[in-house]
Amino acid sequence: MKSIQPYVQTFVLLRQCMNDAIQIENIPVEGTFPEGGLISVWTLNRPDKLNSLNSDSHKALKEACDLAEYNDSIRVIIITGAPPNPPLEGKKPKPYSFAAGADISEFVGKNSDDVRPFFEDNAWERVWNLSKPTIAMIDGFALGGGTELALSCDIRIASNRSKFGTPEINLGLIPGGGGTQRLCRLIGYGKALEMVLTGDMIDSELALSCGLINSVTTPEELKETTMKLAENIAKKSPYTTKVAKRAVRASLDLPFSEGVRMERSEFVALFDTEDKEIGVNAFLNRESPKWLGK
Ligand code: COA
Questions:
Q1: 197-210: pLDDT as tens digits
Q2: Is residue 177 helix, strand or coil?
Q3: 5-234: which CATH topology?
Q4: I want to staple 124 with a disulfide (CB 3.0 to 4.6 A). Which of 23, 138, 177, 195 is the partner?
């Protein structure tokens, strides 16, 4: 695979979300068809508060989801957290974070009527409902709503200094961004409930062994590993990647036999696409497929 360095160096800042809670950088990927495919990197940008998710972060994430869904150039989305700022003189450095949860300061004095509208239209669900592949690139703390945001992504790559947990129980709460359900389906009932009941953190090694994350790297290799994976996916047919995501995702909701029927129906329908003919002929002619995305 070609070095991803040129792409990293040519990060194009297409849009800075109005409230600065996240930054969006769209990185062109060479060799995509239809041409001009982009990897969209969304960086949670509150490092002084460990990138915890406040209402501005949710607003910005939801806006980014709307933009990404309707921008055909965007093939893959990576969500990550900004690294810590250099410490002020005499202060201890802040730790690396993906996101240390919901912004707890916004919970003070709120009752159920206050929070219900926010939680009924939240960013975790919006990310989960994106039709395009998503990757969480995690370096540091992913706690509470941070773990839930990672769980809302399709794939999770973490550095070996990352920590995961659902500490809401320590606040007299439980996960509220789909965490109980997504965690349970990903790592199983026993381990999920242990995490939710204890609120204890687990490290990357344990997270990998229980299936919470897909792979672990050193902090230095995290970006390159994640970009390579994103680039690989970005070069597939953008039409077929959506069908693939939809089919695998359906297994979470459908009974087994119904899921198999649904997959067959999606598979058969792909025989009416131009990309299936392009892919099959490219293989037979030993060429790279030049997808049309339909
Ligand atoms: N919401 C709001 N602010 C948060 C936060 C959160 N979830 N997590 C961290 N912060 C803030 C701290 O208040 C602190 O702000 P300050 O420097 O202005 O005082 C800053 O981020 C750094 O955090 P700090 O606690 O000093 O860092 P630490 O290295 O001692 O501890 C953690 C790191 C992650 C263990 C600790 O911050 C923590 O437990 N955070 C809360 C995690 C949580 O319960 N998440 C679930 C929320 S539902």
A1: 999 999 999 999 99
A2: coil
A3: 2-enoyl-CoA Hydratase; Chain A, domain 1 (3.90.226)
A4: 177
